[in-house]
Write a structure and sequence with these properties.
It is built from twelve helices and 19 strands. With 430 residues, it is of the alpha/beta class. It has a nine-stranded mixed sheet, with helices on both faces. Strands 13, 15, 16 and 17 form a four-stranded mixed sheet that branches. Bound molecules: guanosine-5'-diphosphate, 6-O-phosphoryl inosine monophosphate and magnesium ion (MG). 6-O-phosphoryl inosine monophosphate binds at residues 8, 11-13, 38-41, 129-132, 134, 136-137, 226-228, 231, 242-243, 276-277.
């Protein structure tokens, strides 16, 4: 298999994990490169449903290395729970100890990051981001501010002690004076770190430089994105975004292997669109049709259980995602969810409600998004069950027309089609 990156191309939850899990079959080395346990990734395999948050979606196979890369942030107790949940579903502890690797350079989400995430959201009131409250923003803030704690620090008492002497006075000042939150003593933080060290110890790959060199030379590598292009901190609907780079370009940085390692970039799109959390969503449907998409698509968050906002496919943002996301191919998921719809709409442009101006370029200032309404193109539904289709040829004609139009609008090929959550409900298009 060519080295491939799989990224979400909308607002997350596109069904990336299903696609990653399938492609992982032909890969040797699967690596997450950004995000943390804000992600909720569902894989249905051998009749069981697994929920992953930080563990790469290739973990269900034998003899593959699954790495949590340097660009990720880790809340060790969340990771522990995730591992225990999967062990309770029949995967052995020895399998995790053999296959799961963690980069010593990944950053640790501390309790104070969770405190700050919660506080900041409350303070923003109606303007809140709607985060997953997993401490993601504050952990990446500390990384950029150069005051973060990395996995490797947990394993070096001297370094950790020196670092805490530098960062803790300022952290406590900020916690107390800005956030009105409780400060931490050095002893408390050391005890927290000791707990985290014990959790992570079986998985940390201190030999990562040799192992990655070997993977680059001899192995098929799959880079697994979390979130989606429209949640990217640089290119998404800023500030209603996550704090990392889910675009394909993020893989080169976050997986420690650089851009030249990547040969294919697959963007995963739902056949419609969803968003969980706040922020403008130009094709959102706050009506019966949106409700129908939510109930047929089972659109509820894996991490927070929140109902997802639903709407039609937005080809304006999708084309933008192809550009800034660096995509070379498309996977369309959840086509089956549209099976019973009389009509299916696609936004092909936006109309400014004030000036009447039509634009096909994505407006990056999201505070102007409420001024726009979608210009829709309407497609006839196919009113047939696609969930058992095994090839492109078996699809109803109207479904083929819909997909052909999406391909035309996006300007790159659809190579994977998903018509249900199971591995078998997938069509690879040559
Ligand atoms: P991710 O975060 O992008 O990996 O996606 P999530 O796991 O959060 O959400 C996708 C949901 O859709 C999961 O419940 C999947 O099992 C399900 N799913 C994936 N592909 C399909 C599909 O083609 N059809 C249907 N009906 N469900 C799908
Ligand atoms: P997967 O990988 C959907 C959203 C949150 C919020 C914003 C910022 O399953 O696609 P954060 O906690 O990251 O600071 O929240 O990003 N968000 C997701 N939405 N799927 C995800 O992950 C998400 N991870 C974060 O709802 O709007
Ligand atoms: Mg998800």
């Amino acid at each position: 298999m060519k080295n491939t990156v799989v990224v979400g191309a909308q607002f997350g939850d596109e069904g990336k994990a299903k696609i990653t899990d399938l492609l992982a079959m032909d890969a040797d080395f699967i690596t997450r490169f950004q995000g943390g346990s804000n992600a909720g990734h569902t894989v249905v395999a051998n009749g069981k449903k697994y929920a992953f948050h930080l563990i790469p979606s290739g973990i269900l196979y034998e003899n593959k290395t699954c790495m949590i890369g340097a660009g990720c942030v880790i809340k060790p107790d969340d990771l522990k729970k995730e591992i225990e949940d999967i062990i309770s579903q029949g995967v052995s502890r020895e399998h995790f100890e053999k296959c799961l690797k963690i980069s010593p350079l990944a950053h640790i989400t501390m309790k104070y990051h969770i405190d700050i995430d919660g506080y900041s959201e409350n303070e923003l009131g109606k303007n809140k981001i709607g985060t997953t409250k997993k401490g993601i923003g504050p952990t990446y803030t500390d990384k950029a501010k150069r005051s973060g704690i990395r996995v490797e620090d947990l394993f070096n008492k001297e370094t950790l002690s020196k670092k805490l002497d530098i960062i803790l006075p300022n952290k406590n000042k900020v916690l107390e004076t800005v956030y009105n939150l409780k400060p931490y003593t050095k002893e408390e933080i050391l005890a927290e770190c000791e707990q985290y060290r014990a959790i992570l110890a079986p998985y940390v790959d201190f030999n990562w430089q040799e192992n990655l060199l070997e993977a680059k030379k001899n192995k098929s590598i799959l880079f697994e994105g979390a979130q989606g292009v429209m949640l990217d901190v640089d290119y998404g609907t800023y500030p209603y975004v996550t704090s990392s780079n889910p675009i394909a370009g993020g893989a080169g940085v976050g997986a420690s292997m650089g851009p030249m390692t990547i040969e294919r970039a697959i963007g995963v799109f739902k056949a419609y669109m969803t968003r969980v959390g706040k922020g403008a969503f130009i094709t959102e449907l706050q009506d019966e049709t949106g409700e129908k998409l939510r109930s047929i698509g089972g659109e509820f968050g894996v991490t927070t259980g929140r109902p997802r906002r639903c709407g039609w496919f937005d080809a304006v943002s999708a084309k933008y995602a192809v550009l800034v996301g660096g995509l070379s191919e498309v996977a369309i998921t959840k086509l089956d969810v549209l099976d019973s719809f009389e009509e299916i709409k696609v936004a092909v442009a936006y109309k400014n409600k004030i000036t009447g101006e039509i634009t096909k370029s994505y407006p990056t200032d999201v505070f102007t998004h409420y001024d726009f309404e979608p210009v829709y193109e309407t497609h006839k539904g196919w009113k047939q069950d696609t969930s058992k289709c095994k090839s492109y040829d078996e699809l109803p004609n109207n479904a083929k027309l819909y997909l052909a139009r999406l391909e035309e609008l996006l300007g790159i090929k659809i190579t994977i089609l998903s018509v249900g959550p199971d591995r078998e409900q997938t069509i690879f298009i040559d």
